[in-house]
Amino acid sequence: MSAAPRPDGAGLPVRLGEEPWTATELAQVRAELADEAEGLRAEIAKTAYDIAEALAAVRDAGDDEADAGTKAFERERELALTQNAQDLLDQGERALGRINAGTYGVCESCGQPIGKARLLAFPRATLCVACKQRQERR
Ligand SMILES: [Zn+2]
After folding, report:
1. Are the CB atoms for 98 and 11 separated by under 8 Å?
2. CA 31 to centroid of ligand 1, rounded, Å
């Protein structure tokens, strides 16, 4: 048996005591990430469109100040949501790239396997549980 990464997931790292990745599990994670990326891209495009519409409406309507303030707040919130969606999309695309590169499941901080169980639950995870907890405590 070769240790080189294989597209069916057999070469991906797992934690001690975990079964190796199966092609089915990897396909499931890949499909989940791809679905999510598609949804996020649609969400980002829609928010960008909404913001453009809102800006056009404000220009056209000549709103009074209170109304304009509310609208500015809403736009800010939408921008924050877009940023969040963009971050998730970046993470998801990085995970997909790592699956293709055969490095999926390696903790970005300590280099240990993240664990298959964790990745099946959180396909975008880039840190093992220990590193994640350390990061959250900071
Ligand atoms: Zn780690």
Report:
1. no
2. 25
Residues with CB under 5 A from ligand 1 (ion): 107, 109-110, 128, 131
DSSP states along 41-84: HHHHHHHHHHHHHHHHHHHHHT--HHHHHHHHHHHHHHHHHHHH
Ligand 1 centre to CA of 60 (Å) is 53
124 CA to centre of ligand 1 in angstroms: 14
CA 133/CA 54 separation, integer angstroms: 40
Global pTM reads: 0.76
- Determine the pLDDT at residue 7: 58
| Angstrom distance (rounded) from CA 62 to CA 109 | 52
